[in-house]
Design a protein that fits this description.
The protein is of the alpha+beta class.
């Protein structure tokens, strides 16, 4: 310039952002969402593991979860004053404080519930005549002098037990208190006295001065030793006859411990520390287990003994609680890892696809810069700076949102995940863009699949990946997936299968299109031929978009099948427990239902079918068919068979006892058909001939032969011969005429089904109902016939399978995985179609100058997108199905579906392919591809040919 000054140049980054703000914002939004998901995942896993650990500790029995330090009374060789000082409150408090501070991290005690004191280990026989003796056996009582009674109880009657004078081992009178439940069960009242024998001198007299009520009956103070709160009637183990006696605990005054030293009750000192779970986190589980093991028999125990004495011991069940939580976590983790790795791979592929789209849109611009002397380092550096300005803040914002959305969890895994997303985009976009300009490219060269065959390097790379993926899948199939813990090879199964499918399909994809284009070329219309020809040459059919779609569809199908499998497992468990939609049965095994109750319930609104059953447990098998097994299965407390067969394997050497079920064939067949049980061959149980119904009052003779339908295990033992059986319903012979796998309301694999009309005693013990009867009316009908009948509803049983925090967290992650997989699949379709959008608009503009109508243009784009969408949908169906088949042998859904529910059927629940989870995402891909093609055609039809076609444009 004439003035010698250089012209100011506009900053590159500001100019680019002003020139293409839409692309920058779209990239920032994609990075923000991906970084948020990547950062939220590890925090969500930490959150549900933390809540699960806290939930299990808080819900566990206080006697198991508390850490208790105990030691015997001071040695008899010590002076009396020193022994008494060792059990007084100041010394106990000093030791308790030191023990609380010595607890190693992460174990912390809930200090408000800490209790310590002196207790008797050997119960004392109470001979007072006013105490209850259910079977002429006097009660046995324990005594404890522990701190904190006033803080954890309220006084109901009388006065708090105190020590007016200093209590020593020579004292022969102390004061105590009992709870309301103890006083009611043992006939105690204020002023009652109890006597304890001593080694020297007269007995120790305990006067009950107060009756108290716990402030928190479920707290550690009252629940660590349940007898402190509630007395118990227990059988006498030393008696040859069934005799019961009462046992309970009397609470002495806080400083009355020295008086117990003179008794023969084996006094013991204890310090009880309930764990404080509020500060624990999921990753603390392993450390907590190690700490508990150290306290029980390790360096931690040595520290405890240095404080409490050389004879101190640590007793706790906290380690078992934490280990059970770890087993559930280890069972859930592999299933979660499949979703994490699948969605993470989809997100990475979509981000790379986004970089490819940006590179394609800026190819001409960068080629011009390269032709004018721009170096690859300079171009790459500018692209890196331009990308980082957008990506780094978006990644940081995604991390911040994840931290705010998921409150509990470690921050560094989330930070690493968000950083990885930002780093991938910052590196992939400049690298992908600059690698295309290593060599100058000719303007207007075609890059479709026909004219631009893949290079040898690409072929070798694809073959290498294919061989590695096939080898990994083969190794996984041979080794199996049932190993414990998280295995990257197992978790990466969807990625491996999708990679194989993508590499194979993208190579085979043009062949059927070329074959189909030949007959289409002979037709009069040009739409079919053009759409097939362009579909075979389109760059949207590359391996990267197809891989993204297959990964997303496979992960969504796997996640949907897991969620569906959880629901099916809970439905099946509820049906197995109840037997139908509702069940009316007696509280005792042999209680029968009166005819009036059966008629009343059958006539209730909402009852579609009522099937009366006569269930008799413990029917002895004939000696010739019983085998060498043990006792058979029986009912549980609710009258529902638990199915516990002593034989275990259910073969010919099974149990000596079985369950006989008498049914009305017609109603039971309708029940089996409604509830999804195996088809019931009711025609085989016709009550004709020798099995015809007996006249009223007639006895069943042993010569009668009844046809029975047996379980496979019982049928294998009985064979086809006739066998005599003795039952409460009559004595007769049975002959197996058929088999079924299951019977309603029983989980046992040992059963016989007979026609109840052929029995001597036909009164039903169970009534199974299908339909939707009103629960209130159903229970009112049962209560109207006495209190010996109970009503069970399938819906209420199903509601028992509520999610624990760990189960709920895992299910939420899978729901999010399914949603994210669907979203990334749709985004992959959009990106693959947007990459060729300018070319399509130009094509339509050219064809319109040749007479192509708007409707034909829309059909052309729709037909062009259909083969690619069908390829992705079909490949996704195949990939999802293959992934489930590959992983299902090693995946048990019980920890996700049924864990933590007492009495639930915990047999393995295998993963099965869910049709809707496979079909819906695939159908969504096809529908979206058609919708995008239609929108593109509509938008292109609004723009004139002059706008799209410019002089000198070689497109």
């Amino acid at each position: 310039m004439s003035d010698g000054k250089r012209a100011a140049s506009a900053p590159w980054i500001r100019t680019r952002l002003r020139t293409a703000p839409g692309a920058a914002v779209a990239l920032a939004v994609l990075v923000l969402v991906t970084a948020f998901l990547a950062a939220a995942f590890p925090r969500a896993v930490d959150a549900y593991e933390t809540k699960g650990l806290r939930h299990d500790i808080r819900l566990a029995d206080a006697g198991r979860s508390a850490v208790e330090v105990s030691r015997p009374q001071p040695g008899l060789e010590l002076p009396r004053e020193r022994r008494e000082a060792g059990v007084r409150t100041p010394e106990l408090k000093r030791i308790g404080g030191a023990l609380g501070q010595a607890l190693p991290d992460p174990l912390r005690a809930e200090m408000s519930s800490v209790a310590y004191g002196v207790r008797t280990l050997k119960p004392v026989l109470a001979t007072e005549p006013w105490l209850p003796r259910p079977d002429t056996v006097p009660p046995q009582l324990s005594y404890t002098a522990q701190t904190g009674l006033k803080e954890h109880a309220r006084l109901v009657e009388g006065a708090w037990p105190t020590t007016p004078a200093e209590v020593t081992s020579t004292s022969r009178a102390v004061r105590g208190a009992v709870t309301e439940e103890t006083a009611a069960a043992l006939n105690m009242k204020v002023g009652s006295t109890l006597r304890l024998p001593t080694a020297v001198g007269g007995p120790l007299t305990v006067t009950i001065t107060g009756i108290v009520a716990p402030r928190d009956p479920g707290g550690s103070y009252w629940s660590a030793d349940p007898l402190v709160r509630t007395p118990s009637l227990i059988p006498d183990p030393a008696s040859p006859f069934p005799q019961n006696y009462w046992t309970g605990t009397v609470l002495l005054a806080e400083d009355a411990g020295p008086a117990l030293l003179a008794t023969a009750t084996e006094p013991s000192l204890f310090w009880r520390f309930p764990p404080d779970a509020s500060a624990l986190t999921g990753p603390d589980g392993a450390r907590l287990t190690a700490v508990v093991n150290s306290l029980e028999s390790g360096p931690g125990l040595l520290k405890v003994r240095a404080i409490a004495g050389d004879t101190a011991e640590v007793l706790t069940g906290l380690g078992h609680i934490v280990q059970a939580n770890a087993r559930m976590r280890d069972a859930i983790s592999p299933v979660i890892a499949v979703a994490a790795l699948g969605i993470g791979s989809v997100a990475a592929v979509v981000l790379v696809m986004t970089g490819a789209l940006i590179a394609a849109r800026r190819k001409a611009e960068l080629a011009l810069m390269r032709s004018r002397g721009g170096s690859l380092r300079g171009i790459g550096g500018r692209l890196l700076a331009e990308t980082a300005v957008t990506v780094v803040p978006a990644s940081a914002l995604g991390l911040l949102l994840a931290v705010l959305a998921v409150g509990e969890g470690r921050w560094w895994p989330a930070a690493l995940a968000a950083t990885g997303v930002g780093l991938l985009v910052c590196v992939a976009l400049p690298l992908r863009t600059t690698l295309q300009h290593i060599r100058p490219t000719l303007h207007g060269a075609r890059e479709d699949m026909v004219s631009a065959r893949p290079s040898r390097r690409r072929t070798v790379a694809e073959l290498t990946l294919l061989v590695l993926a096939v080898g990994a899948v083969t190794a996984l199939r041979r080794r199996g997936t049932s190993g414990g813990g998280t295995d990257l090879l197992v978790s990466g199964a969807p990625v491996l299968v999708a990679l194989i499918a993508a590499l194979v399909l993208v190579r085979l994809y043009p062949l059927p299109l070329r074959l189909a284009a030949r007959p289409m070329a002979r037709l009069r219309g040009a739409i079919g031929f053009l759409s097939l020809a362009r579909a075979g040459r389109s760059s949207a059919g590359g391996a990267l978009p197809l891989l993204a779609l297959l990964l997303a569809l496979a992960t969504a199908a796997f996640g949907g099948s897991v969620i569906a499998g959880i629901g099916d497992a809970r439905d099946d468990a509820a049906l197995t427990a109840v037997g139908a939609d509702a069940r009316v049965s007696g509280k005792s095994e042999r209680a029968t239902l009166p005819d009036e109750l059966v008629r009343t319930v059958r006539d209730l609104d909402g009852v579609r079918n009522a099937a009366p059953l006569r269930v008799e447990f413990g029917v002895a098998m004939p000696e010739t068919a019983a085998g060498d097994g043990g006792a058979g299965s029986g009912p549980d407390d609710s009258g529902t068979d638990t199915g516990a067969d002593s034989g275990g394997d259910g073969d010919a050497a099974g149990a000596r006892a079985t369950t006989m079920v008498g049914v009305a064939p017609a109603s039971y067949t309708r029940l089996a058909r409604t509830t999804g049980l195996p088809d019931f061959p009711s025609g085989l149980l016709k009550a004709t001939g020798a099995s015809a119904p007996l006249p009223e009052g007639a006895k069943s003779g042993p010569e009668r032969v009844l046809p029975v339908i047996a379980s496979p295990a019982v049928a294998a033992r009985l064979g086809k011969e006739q066998h005599a059986v003795d039952t409460l319903s009559g004595d007769f012979k049975v002959q197996v005429v058929g088999t079924v796998e299951r019977v309603a309301s029983l989980a046992s694999t040992n059963f016989l089904i007979v026609n109840s009309a052929s029995l001597e005693q036909r009164a039903p013990t169970t009534l199974l109902l299908t339909g939707a009867p009103d629960p209130g009316k159903l229970r009112a009908a049962a209560d109207g016939n006495g209190e010996e009948f109970v009503v069970q509803l399938r819906s209420e049983e199903r509601a028992r399978y509520v999610n624990t925090p760990m189960q709920a967290g895992a299910e939420r992650i899978y729901l999010a995985a399914v949603a994210a997989g669907a979203g990334y699949a749709l985004l992959a379709v959009l990106l693959s179609l947007l990459q060729t959008a300018p070319e399509r608009k130009t094509l339509l503009a050219r064809l319109r100058t040749m007479g192509l109508t708007t409707g034909q243009g829309r059909r052309l784009l729709a037909f062009e997108a259909t083969p690619q969408a069908l390829l992705a949908a079909g490949g996704g169906l195949l990939t999802g199905w293959a992934t489930i088949v590959l992983l299902s042998p090693g995946i048990d859904l019980v920890p996700l579906a049924l864990a933590g529910v007492a009495g639930s059927d915990t047999s393995p629940v295998t993963l099965r392919a869910d049709l809707w989870s496979l079909a819906l995402p695939a159908a969504g891909v096809v529908a979206l591809a058609a919708a995008v093609a239609g929108v593109q055609a509509w938008w292109a039809s609004r723009r004139g040919s002059i706008t799209e076609l410019r002089a000198g444009d070689s497109r």
